[in-house]
Amino acid sequence: MSKKPLYIIPARGGSKGIPRKNIKDFAGKPLICYSIEAARALSDDEHIIVSTDDEEIADVARSTGLKVEYMRPSHLATDTAGSREVMIDAMDWAERKGVDYDMIVLLQPTSPLRNADDIRGCIELYSDEIDMVVSVVEAQSNPYYNCFETSPETGYLHISKGDGLYTRRQDVPKAWEYNGAVYVINPKSLRDMPMGKFPRRIPYEMPRSRSVDLDTPTDWIIAEMIYKQNI
């Protein structure tokens, strides 16, 4: 099958954990620039959409030479707006502009350590017979080994999954968590159902060293240290 990704980089203006994080300086340039550069390494500009409601963010994106014609509607720029609705609105805009695509690649600016090879690897795993390829990292807590739940009857802890008899972490089935870096999504699946209901999801493993998702100021410090050690 031909592969024609539409890259969507979501960057709303409001941010509580790290104020103005999408354009905050990260190792010498605005955070959003890293996602734009990663997309441009694989795509022409026509297939890259920065989805923002904020003119300052749009101007920073334009400073890279990228045209930012689409602006996210205000009702999709609140704390409660879902990423699915944000992507569908950008898809509708692209279709009205005559942009041809057959998959969505969502690149969140909060994953600046992700690189073009990570995106390429996800795209290579994708086919229109699945709903999504998603980047993952091995979970630090494993439900068979060191992740516990509390019994509502007794209040006692019990292992989340399995019989709790594993004595070595190396022996347990691997567990994964989304790292937030890359989502390659079937457009029809996205229109048909919420992403959490996708039955056909394929993982793309990334190393922990590139899996820092910037939610807190501490995450920011760690990610900058990793980035500077590897440039």
Find the CATH superfamily of the largest domain.
Spore Coat Polysaccharide Biosynthesis Protein SpsA, Chain A
Number of strands: 10
Instruction: Tell me about the largest β-sheet.
Output: 6 strands, mixed
Helix percent band? 25-40%
Strand order of the largest sheet: 4-1-5-9-6-10
Strand content: 15-25%
- Note poorly predicted spans: none
Overall pLDDT metric: 95
Outline of the structure:
The chain has six helices and ten strands. The protein has helices at residues 32-40, 55-62, 83-96, 116-125, 187-192, 217-230, and strands spanning 5-10, 25-26, 29-30, 48-51, 103-106, 132-138, 148-150, 157-159, 176-185, 201-205. It has a six-stranded mixed beta sheet with strand order 4-1-5-9-6-10, with helices on both faces. A two-stranded antiparallel sheet has the order 2-3.
Explain the overall architecture.
This protein has 231 residues and is of the alpha/beta class. It has 2 domains: 5-137 and 175-230, Spore Coat Polysaccharide Biosynthesis Protein SpsA, Chain A (Alpha-Beta Complex); 140-174, no CATH class. It is 26% helix and 20% strand. The protein is built from 6 helices and 10 strands, in the order E-E-E-H-E-H-H-E-H-E-E-E-E-H-E-H. The strands form 3 sheets. The protein has a 6-stranded mixed β-sheet, sandwiched between helices. Strands 2-3 form a two-stranded antiparallel sheet. The longest helix has 14 residues, at 83-96. It is globular. The two termini are 36 Å apart. The mean pLDDT is 95.
